[in-house]
Amino acid sequence: MTKKIAVVAADGRAARKIITEAVNRGFDVTAFGRKDENPTDAQHYVKRDIFDLTADDLKGFDAVVDAFGAWTEDTLPQHSTTLAHLSDLLAGTDTRLLIVGGAGSLYVNPEHTVTLSQTPDFPDSFKPLANAMASALADLRKRGDVKWTYASPAGDFQADGDRTGKYLLAGEELTLNDRGESIISYADYAIAMVDEIEKGDHIQQRISVVRA
């Protein structure tokens, strides 16, 4: 049976990679974005702001991918408000909610008391974004009524990196590959995301991915 998925905030580069990966695997994909024309490979496109989405818009999908991103000081709180809105729309349904997350909230110690964004080498310029995304994740963890999965990329998330077709699946902690790298391309991250939709069962869990 063909998987039906929706991708929200579909205009971004990570979203487009996920859409392409899903379409190439035979998924039926609906993209929700803010552009007038469909900039993605999705078979269906709906121009709609994320806050204007309704429960009816998302009815009937096996999974909804939240690819929302904001980078300016005044819009950073929308990481929490948009995710809360989507969670409310999907609450109590069987539709999975998968979030394109951040790496800053990954833990760097076994006790899970220190995150990557709290380490000395983490760039100051990225801390507001990391904090905003961590806050959204903290709110999400309180939701027992949504089948969510939060997918964090590696520390070096490369928009134009190669599609190697290989990745390591990890959990709450920052994971390095055997070359000591924390790196993943958007294309390989998209593979991991679609794999999770297709055969993963990390419900109400955070996963992370790094290049193998």
Automatic annotation (TrEMBL):
SUPFAM superfamilies the UniProt entry points to: NAD(P)-binding Rossmann-fold domains
Record-linked InterPro entries: NAD(P)-bd_dom, NAD(P)-bd_dom_sf, Polyketide_Oxido-like
Any Pfam family the entry gives: NAD_binding_10
A GO term, aspect molecular function: oxidoreductase activity, acting on the CH-NH group of donors, NAD or NADP as acceptor
UniProt domain NAD(P)-binding: residue ranges: 10-195
Name the record gives this protein: Dihydrodipicolinate reductase
Organism: Pseudoscardovia radai
